[in-house]
Amino acid sequence: QVQLAESGGGLVQAGGSLRLSCVASGRVESVYLMGWFRQAPGKEREFVAARSRKGGSIYYADSVKGRFTVSGESFKNTVYLQMNRLEPEDTAVYYCAAGQTVVDVTATGDYDYWGRGTQVTVSS
Question: Which band of pLDDT confidence, cut at 50, 70 and 90, is reported for residue 53?
Answer without folding.
Answer: confident
